[in-house]
Amino acid sequence: MADLRNNFVGIRSPNPFWLASAPPTDKAYNVIRAFEAGWGGVVWKTLGLDPHVVNVSSRYGAVQWNGQRIAGLNNIELITDRPLQVNLAEIRQVKRDWPDRAMIVSLMVPCDEESWKYILPMVEDTGCDAVELNFGCPHGMSERGMGSAVGQVPEYVEQVARWVKQHSRLPCIVKLTPNITDIRHSARAAFRGGADAVSLINTINSIVSVDLDLMAPTPTVDGKGTHGGYCGPAVKPIALNMVAEIARDAETRNLPISAIGGIGTWRDAAEFMALGAGNVQVCTAAMHYGFRIVDDMIAGLSNWMDEKGYRTLEDFRGRAVPNVTDWKFLNLKYDIKALIDQDKCIKCGLCHIACEDTAHQAITREKDGKRHFEVVNGECVGCNLCMHVCPVDSCISMVRVDEGGYANWTTHPNNPAAVKEPA
Amino acid sequence: MSRKDLADIASGRLSAQQLAQNFDDVSPPLDRQSALIAAQRCYYCYDAPCIQACPTGIDIPSFIRRITTDNLRGAAQDILGANVLGGMCARVCPTEILCEGSCVRNTGESQPVEIGALQRYATDWVFDTNVTLFDRAPATGKRVAIVGAGPAGLSCAHTLARLGHDVTLFDAKPKPGGLNEYGIAEYKVLEFAAREIEWLLSIGGIAWQGGQALGENLHLSSLCNDYDAVFLGLGLAGVNALGIDGENLAGVRNAVDFIADLRQCDDFSQMPVGRRVVVIGGGNTAIDAAVQSRKLGAESVTLVYRRGSASMSATWAEQEFAKTQGVNVIEWAQPRRILGSAGAVEAIEFEYTQLDADGRLLGSGDVLRLAADTVLKAIGQVLLAPRADGDASALLEVDKGRIVVNAEFETSVRGVWAGGDCVGGKVDLTVQAVEDGKQAARSMHARLGNGGQGNG
Ligand SMILES: Cc1cc2nc3c(=O)[nH]c(=O)nc-3n(C[C@H](O)[C@H](O)[C@H](O)COP(=O)(O)OP(=O)(O)OC[C@H]3O[C@@H](n4cnc5c(N)ncnc54)[C@H](O)[C@@H]3O)c2cc1C
Ligand SMILES: Cc1cc2nc3c(=O)[nH]c(=O)nc-3n(C[C@H](O)[C@H](O)[C@H](O)COP(=O)(O)O)c2cc1C
Ligand code: SF4
Ligand code: SF4
Ligand code: SF4
Questions:
Q1: How far is B43 from chain A (nearest CA, A)?
Q2: Which Pfam family, any one of them, does this sequence belong to (chain A) (predicted)?
Q3: Do residues A348 and A338 touch, judged by C-beta distance below 8 A?
Q4: b/e per residue, B242-255, with b = 16+ CB within 10 A?
Q5: B318 and B280, same structural domain?
Q6: Average pLDDT per 10 consecutive residues for chain B, totaling 456 residues
C-alpha cells in the first residue's frame, strides 16, 4: 500500500489533502466533520482584526455547463464574519483534539507591521502548525487595501512576508492571487521575503452571468451585483499552468507549493503534484458534494500509486516538471495523423464538420454513397481537434508517422532570430 | 344491441378511478430538468441520420440544441415549420423505426436520444402558451379546396394558408382531425388532438366545412370548377371484410369503429366492452383495439395474426407494449368461421397456418377455437374512392386501392392533388401524411404562382 503521508515544510498530515480556507473551514463544527471524514488538514477560514466583517445575502453564482450544475463557482463572501477570539479558541481546541492533522491559520490584516505584530502571537498561541497569508481575495477586501490589493504588488508581498517571518516562528505560506499578468513575480517576491511556501491559486476575478430579466450580474443583491472570485473545475487549467511556471522558474524552483484550484479528484491532485506541488487544497468540490469526497481521493491516489510502483508522494512529485518546456524547444520533426477506428465510429459526422469548417479539410464524409468518415493523411496536420470532438472514447487516435530526428524553432529557417546550432 | 341480449358486453367494468388511470398519458411529458438531461445527450451530429429518417425532415439536432439554450420558440419553429402536426407526431410516431431508430447513440449504447419526448417538450410549450409562430404571406387571391381534414389535409391547408392562399377544408365527419380525432389511441393523445387543430387553424385563411362527403353532398367536378386547385386527403375510410361465416353476428365489429366510439366517448364508464375479446389483425389498429379493450376492463384479450410477429405492421415496440398490457398474442392462425347463438357471437375458429417452400401461406388443418363475446376485425382499411360524379371523378385513376399520384402528388385529374393514406406511397403513418400534404401544397403553390391556375 502506498504511503500517503505528507510533510509540507515540516507540517505533517496523514495525506496530502487539505481543505482550503473557505466556508468548509469556517468553524470547529465543520472542521471536526472534515477530520472525521479523513481530510489531512485544513486552512482555517481567513481571520481578520475585530470588528469582524459582515456578509451580504446572496453570495454565490455558478456556471452550469452541459448538465454540470457547477462547472465554475463564483463568490462574493468576505473573510470570517465571526469575532477573532471565538475563532482562536476553536482553533486551539480542535488542534488539541486532532494533533495528527495539519492546522493552518489563514490571515488577512491591514498592510502595516503593527497589525501583523499584533495578531501573530495570538495565532501562534493556538498551537497551529502554520499561517497562510491571504493575498488573494479579489473582491470586497481588496477595496479596503487587503487581499489581492496586496497580492498584486510584489513589493508588498515581499514586505509582509518579511514581517511575518520576523514576528513569528511559524512556517509562513503565502497564498497568491491569479489576478496578475505573470505569477512568477508574486512567487519570487514571496520567496525573497522569506516565505516558506506559496499556495495558489486564490479565486479569479469574475462575473459568472448576467440575469437578463434583472439586467444585473449574479449573484444579485437587491438588484445589484459585483465582481466575485471564480473557482471550481473551470479554473484548474489556469492553476496548473501557474503552478508549473513557479516550479520551473530558476529562482523559485525549490519553493514548496500547496496547489489549489479546481481540485476534486485524486487525479487532479496527482496532476498538480506531478507539476511539483507538495500537496493540494480543495474548496469547491467539497462545497458541491460534502466532505466524503476525500474518501475516493485517498483510495484513488493510493491505488494509482500502487499501480505505478510509487511508494511515497515524493516518488512522483515534480516528475512532469522537466517536460514542461517553452514552445521553441518542441520537436518540429514529430508528426502525427488522426486515425479513425471504423469499428468504433458511430458516424455522427462531428469530426468531419470540425475539420472541414475549422481545421484542415482532412476528413471525408462519404464513400460509395454512404456515410463514411476517413482521414486524408496528406491534409491532416495532427492538431487533435477531431479526437477531442469525437464522442466515442478512443475512436480517433493519433498515430506517429515521422521518421524520428529532432529540430526546433531556434534553428528553423523561417525564424528570423534562428541560431546556427540547435539550442 | 341491448345489454340484456349480450350480457357479456358491458360498460362500467372498472371504477372511474381505475379507468382514469388506465387511459392516462402513456408517456408523460418531460419537465425542464429531464428535458435538459435528455437534450444534452444529443451529439448535434453533422448531416444527422435522424433527420434523414424523419419523413418530414425536421432538423432534429437543431431543435434539440435550441432546447438546451432555453430557446423553446426556436425549437418549436424548427419542428412545426417542417411538420405542423409535430405535437401529434411527438406522441404517435413509432420513433423506434423512424428518427430514434437511426440515432447514432444506438450504436454502442442501444439508447437513442429521446427525440419524441423532446419534440413533445418543445411543442407543448406552444400549446400551453398559445403563441403564434407563423404569419401568412400577403393574400394571393387563390382559393383551394381540401377534402379530408386528417393529417394530410390539415398539413396541406396550413402550408397553403401560410403561403397566402385561401383554403376551404371539407370533411364528411363533424370534427376535423381524421384519425387524429377518431383513430389514434386515447392514451397517446388525451385531449390533445382538438387543441392542436385549434392552434393550427388559428393562422387564419382556412374555412372549416364539416359534414361534407365527397361523392354525396360534395362533388369533385364542381370543386374543380369553383376552386383554383383541389387536394384530396381522404385516408382509408373503408374496411376489409373477413368474408367468413358469422361475420354479421352481434358482437362482431370493425376495430376502427370501436376505437372511434372510444375516442368520442366522454365517459369511459359508459363505454361497453366484451368480457372475452378476440382481435384479428397485426397492425396499429389491432394493437390499439386490443390494448384499449384491456384498459376498459375486458377479462381476456387475444390478438390473432395469420403470420409471424416479424410480418406485423405494428412495430416491435408496439407489440411489446401490448404484451405488458396483458394482451395475449397468437401468431400463425387465420380465422375460418365465427360461431354464435341467438344472433350473438360465442366463439371463433381459426386454422393454424404455415409457409410452404415458396413462402405462400397455407392452412395446416389444425383448428383453434376461442370463446368470445366480441370479435374486433382489424385486417386493414381500404380506400373508398369518391363515387363517380361526372367527368372529374371518373378520371381519378386508382390502382391497387390507392389514388395514383406523380412525384408532385398530382392525380390523373388536372388541378387535383392527393396525399396521405389514400395515396399510400410509403408508410401509412401520421407523419407521412403530414409530409405528403406539405409537399403537395408546395407543388400547388408553384403551379398557382405561375400566373396560371391549377385547373388550367
Ligand atoms: C386505429 C389506428 C391507429 C393508428 N395509430 C397510429 C399511430 O399511433 N401512429 C401513426 O403514425 N399512425 C397511426 N395510424 C395511421 C394514421 O392515423 C394515418 O396514417 C393517418 O391518419 C393518415 O392521414 P390521412 O390524412 O391520410 O387520413 P385520415 O386521418 O384517415 O383522414 C382522412 C379524412 O378524410 C375524410 N374523408 C374520407 N373520405 C371522405 C369523403 N368521401 N368525403 C369527405 N371526407 C372524407 C375522413 O373523414 C377523414 O377525416 C393509425 C391508424 C389507425 C386506423
Ligand atoms: C465561498 C468562498 C469563500 C472563500 N473564502 C476564502 C477565504 O476566506 N480565504 C482564502 O484564502 N480563500 C478563500 N476562498 C478561496 C478558496 O480557498 C480557494 O482558493 C479557491 O476556491 C480555489 O479552489 P477550488 O477551485 O477548490 O474552490 C474562498 C472560496 C469560496 C468559494
Ligand atoms: S487532427 Fe486536425 S487536421 Fe487532422 S483530421 Fe483531425 S482535425 Fe483534421
Ligand atoms: S466523430 Fe468519431 S464517431 Fe463521429 S463520425 Fe467522427 S470518428 Fe465517427
Ligand atoms: S442522430 Fe441522435 S445524437 Fe445525432 S443529432 Fe440525431 S438525435 Fe442527436
A1: 7
A2: Fer4_21
A3: no
A4: beeebeebbbbbbb
A5: yes
A6: 58 90 90 94 96 97 95 96 97 96 93 97 93 94 97 98 97 96 90 94 97 93 95 94 93 96 92 95 95 95 96 94 96 96 94 93 94 95 78 79 95 95 90 98 90 47
- Mutation to probe ligand 2, out of A203, A235, A258, A293 (largest number of atoms < 8 A from CB): A203
Final residue belonging to a domain, choices B100, B129, B158: B129
Q: Residues B162, B187: one domain?
A: yes
- Which of B232, B293, B234 is CA-nearest to residue B261? B293
Q: B391 with B335, same domain?
A: no
- Of B380, B402, B433, the residue at which a domain comes to its end is B380
Q: Which residue has the least CA distance to atom 7 on ligand 4?
A: A345
Our CA-based measurement puts residue B108 at a distance from the nearest CA of chain A, in whole angstroms, of: 8
Reported confidence tier of residue A89, pLDDT bands at 50, 70, 90: very high
Is there a domain that residue B3 lies in?
no
**Any idea what DSSP says for residue A282?**
E
Residue type, B159: T
Q: What is the pLDDT of residues A162-180, one digit of tens each?
A: 999 999 999 999 999 999 9
Contact A346 B105 (CB under 8 A): yes
Ligand 3 pocket member A380 (CB < 6 A): yes
Contact A349 B40 (CB under 8 A): no
Q: Which of A335, A355, A373, A377 to mutate to test the pocket of ligand 3 (most atoms within 8 A of CB)?
A: A355
State whether residue B8 is helix, strand or coil.
coil
Contacts of B93 (CB under 8 A, 6+ apart): B99, B116, B429, B430, B431
Whether B304 is in a domain gets the answer yes
Hey, which residues of A are catalytic here? 137
Residue pair B63/A411 in contact by the 8 Å Cβ criterion: no
User: Nearest Cα to A230, choosing from A148, A143, A132, A292?
Assistant: A148
> What pTM value is reported for the model?
0.87
Residue whose C-alpha cell is 393550427: B200
- Give the domain CATH number at B113: 1.10.1060.10
Closest Cβ opposite residue B47 in set A344, A365, A391: A365
Residues B36 and B65 grouped into a single domain: yes
- Residues B149 and B184 occupy one common structural domain: yes
Extended strands (E) in B191-246: 206-209, 229-232, 238-239
**β-strand B206-209 against B166-170: which pairing, if any?**
parallel
Domain hosting B179: range is 143-237+383-449
Q: Cα of A357 to ligand 5 centre, how many Å?
A: 20
| Beta carbons of A391 and B108 less than 8 Å apart | no
**ipTM, interface predicted TM-score of the complex:** 0.80
Q: Is B12 exposed, middle or buried (0-12, 13-18, 19+ CB in 10 A)?
A: middle
Residue B6 lies in a domain: no
Q: How many domains does chain B have?
A: 3
B147 lines ligand 1 (CB under 6 A): yes
List the beta strands (DSSP E) in B66-195: 143-147, 166-170
What is the DSSP code (8-state) at residue B202? T
Which residues contact ligand 5 via a Cβ below 6 A?
A 348; B 42-45, 48-50, 60-61, 103-105, 113, 115
Residues A298-308 have pLDDT tens digits of: 999 999 999 99
Do B229 and B243 share a domain, yes or no? no
Kindly state whether residues B407 and B439 are assigned to the same domain: yes
Q: What is the distance in angstroms between the Cα of A288 and the nearest Cα belonging to chain B?
A: 19
Answer yes or no: are the C-beta atoms of A158 and A190 closer than 8 Å: yes
The residues on A that touch B, with CB distances below 8 Å, are 66-67, 344, 346-350, 352-353, 365, 371, 391-392
Distant-in-sequence, close-in-space partners of A37: CB < 8 Å, separation ≥ 6: A291, A292, A294, A295
Buried b (16+ CB within 10 A) or exposed e, A137-154: bbbbbbeeebbbbbbbbb
Residue B292 lies in a domain: yes
